[in-house]
Design a protein that fits this description.
344 residues, alpha/beta, Rossmann fold, 2 domains, six-stranded parallel β-sheet, 12 strands
């Protein structure tokens, strides 16, 4: 393609971890087509990470929770942007409908084999080559990236493009929270998720960590109740709490500051875990039923540790959001606190 001022629409609506994994696509497009105008279709709860991303002209919000009424507004916003080229980095029915609604003449996306709903792949006019049977989600995005920006040869960028003042604010905040030596950051799990570790074990790990150095316990809006409970229970000079963290770029700035200080991240398979490794943190992943080869922390393997439960059932790995095992969610409940402490 020429270096004409294209209007490019990235479609990656959800979830937080998947939006993080698609960041190299934006950075590569920005480098390969410097005069292009780029927009990103995304759900509102994840748009905050992108607003401030260098070279992104606008976010086009898909109000999924609004039901059918979301589509007329989305169509108006897409028409106003007037995309020449849409790139579907999600690959499901919902993202296919957004790409079609953009009326872009060229619609790039994944090969049919990469779609759960194969019929929706007909929305793509320019598929990238298919990948191997087992492939990390990031590798899939990079495969698409190489297809749409073949001339771009730089190393993939996974960061959120934080500006200097954002990074400085993150460093100040971390300095206020973690004043002692060493340190570890624990991110709590959302209640009721089959990928979650119990609040009792996080509390036990925090106590053990406080014997050796500083501990920072972070919870987001979904885990806020657990965060408040631990803030009340764990009153220790070496344990600090960030309860109900809102603001995704602020979270990325905090994690970037922690990475610079060598503070590792401990948490489950979640969006914040992906923000952590993309910010440069070393990750200790409490791996539940999911396959870490597909959804675990990406990058140099030596930088990260993956811990499985002592009883991994025959049905693992799986992608189910509910657990039907006769003994309950054994993938997570058999991960021992001592093993995590040893990994740290």
């Amino acid at each position: 393609m020429s270096d004409a001022p294209l209007r490019i629409l990235i479609v990656r609506l959800s979830h937080l971890g998947d939006v993080v994994q698609a960041l190299p696509l934006h950075h590569a497009l920005r480098g390969a087509y410097p005069r292009a105008r780029i927009a990103w279709a995304v759900q509102p709860e994840f748009a905050g990470l992108l607003e401030g991303l260098p070279g992104l002209e606008r976010t086009i919000r898909f109000e999924r929770r609004a039901g059918a009424s979301a589509w007329p507004r989305l169509a108006r916003d897409l028409e106003e942007f007037g995309a020449d080229w849409s790139i579907d980095a999600q690959g499901n029915v919902k993202s296919a409908l957004v790409a079609l609604a953009s009326r872009a003449g060229r619609r790039s996306g994944y090969a049919r084999e990469d779609w759960r709903e194969g019929f929706a792949a007909t929305s793509v006019t320019d598929p990238c080559p298919a990948g191997p049977p087992v492939e990390h989600a990031v590798e899939r995005v990079l495969r698409l990236t190489r297809h749409v920006a073949p001339a771009w040869r730089a190393e993939p960028r996974f960061d959120a493009g934080l500006a200097g003042p954002e990074i400085e604010a993150g460093e100040r905040r971390l300095a206020e929270l973690v004043t002692g030596p060493g340190g570890v950051l624990l991110h709590l799990s959302p209640p009721g998720d089959v990928r979650s570790w119990s609040i009792e074990r996080f509390a036990e790990l925090a106590r053990a960590g406080a014997d050796r150095g500083s501990v920072l316990i972070v919870s987001g809006p979904t885990e806020e109740a657990h965060g408040r409970a631990l803030a009340t229970e764990l009153r220790h000079p070496r344990i600090a709490h960030v309860v109900g963290q809102r603001g995704l770029r602020e979270l990325a700035a905090l994690f970037t500051a922690a990475a610079r200080r060598g503070i590792p991240f401990v948490g489950c398979d979640s969006g914040p875990m992906h923000v952590a490794w993309s910010s440069g943190m070393r990750v200790v992943l409490l791996a539940g039923p999911q396959d870490e080869r597909r959804t675990g922390p990406f990058g140099v393997r030596a930088h990260h540790r993956v811990i499985h439960g002592q009883r991994r059932p025959d049905c693992a790995p799986c992608r189910s959001r509910t657990c039907s095992h006769r003994d309950g969610p054994v993938c997570m409940c058999t991960i021992a606190v001592g093993e995590v402490a040893d990994a740290l």
